[in-house]
Amino acid sequence: MELQQDRGEVLDGNRYHFTVTGRELIQGEAPAELYTDVPLSCEYPVQDTPHPTERSNSVTVRVYQSAGLLWRHILSALVLFAAVGLLIEHFISHTPITDAASQRVRVDPEVQSYPGETVNLRCAFADKGDLQLTQVSWIWERTDGAQDNIAVYHPEFGSRYPQSPFTGRISFPNPSLDNPSVVISDLKMTDEGKYICEFSTYPSVIEQGTTTLIMLDGKPPAQIKWVSGVNANGTTTSKPGADNTVTVCSEYWLVPTPADNGKDISCVISHPTQDKPQTMPLKLAIEYPPKVTIVGYHNNWYVGRTNVMLTCQATGNPVLTSVTWKVLSGRMPDAVQVKENKLMVLKVDEFVNTTFVCEVKNRLGVGKDQVTVVVSAAPGRKRRGSESTGEFVETVC
Q1: Residue 102: alpha-carbon gap to chain centroid
Q2: CATH classification for the domain delimited by 288-383, as one of 1.10.1740.10, 2.60.40.10, 3.10.50.40, 2.60.120.260
Q3: Beta-carbon neighbour count of residue 177 at 10 Å?
Q4: Based on CB atoms within 10 Å of each CB, which residue in 69, 83, 304, 331 is the most buried?
Q5: In the chain, what percentage of residues exceed pLDDT 90?
């Protein structure tokens, strides 16, 4: 602090009148018009004065003939040093320690969990030495950097939970400075972030440990693939959902055919949080009208042959409702017996020379097939005659 000599009149010989930032140091010893504002600095000049100087704490104080003026300067210097000391103490007490000593706060570096579950955030102070633990606080730092004080424990005042998104969900299970771990229930995706366990200690230091909570559900997006024996194409889309989740949707498109009905198809979901991929098996159900085929005739039916049979094979979805046998000639031969999808010829004769039709129905429609039977002569017999007259004579050899 620098005091400059007033340029007014001399008072009492060598005594001059001074002011500091516009305030009088000596009241009433000279007219107001002689006062001069004196700026503050960190040093008192001592040149060009017959009086000795005194130095204290690197601040030089000029000794004046006026004792009142001297003591006012000394008092101002002491107040200045006290204020600087308080500022330094405040800065130290509110600055977290970031060197190796801060590692005395033991926490889990990372914790993973799912929405709806409960997580235990552990914290302990190791090797406190001569430090006295006074209070512990939990601070939540969001992914965007904003911070909230969510839990505080003081040995005299107990536990306190400031209003925050964790109100009603966070607690100290065993509140103490030795075990200030907290439990958070009903986790949400938005709870993800850093959790700082902060100890206030004496003398005036703060030490911290940070746990990062990672919410697993919905991140990263799941991978979906399809496994099947059909000709199809899959499409996958991702859509951000509520609470920082990601919804993945996959669709499998195909042109259905009757041959695809009943085939197996699987949706396979993979995610880093799963021990193994999750498989969802499906069975295709393709609806179609009946498809009909008649089997059993091989161009080897001859007169006199017995117990030959035609079978009407049909598939369809939904279920088949009826099977009907018909002949194009109009009347079913007497040697024929029908039972459900089977047509039995007890003994082949000329009347079996006809076209048999099998007709099958379901809810979606009708399907049918037909076979034309040509009866040949019995083995060892020859047929002679005229195709124009239709007259034949059988000869037994």
Answers
A1: 32
A2: 2.60.40.10
A3: 19
A4: 69
A5: 55
How many residues are present in the chain?
A: 397
Can you tell me the distance from the alpha carbon of 384 to that of 375, in angstroms, rounded to the nearest whole number? 15
Multiple choice CATH, 100-215, 3.40.50.150, 3.40.50.261, 2.60.40.10, 3.30.470.20:
2.60.40.10
- Global pTM reads 0.45
Q: Sign of torsion, CA 328 331 334 340?
A: positive
| Average pLDDT over the chain, rounded to an integer | 78
183 — phi, psi (to 5°)? -120, 130
DSSP 145-186: S-EEEEEEEETTTEEE--SSTTTTTEE-SS-SSS---EEE-S
Alpha helices in the chain (DSSP H): 67-93
Looking at residue 13, its pLDDT comes to 43
The DSSP line for 26-57 is: STTSS-GGG-------S----TT-SS-EEEET
| Token pair recorded at residue 364 | 């979606």
- Say how far apart CA 25 and CA 36 lie, in whole Å: 11
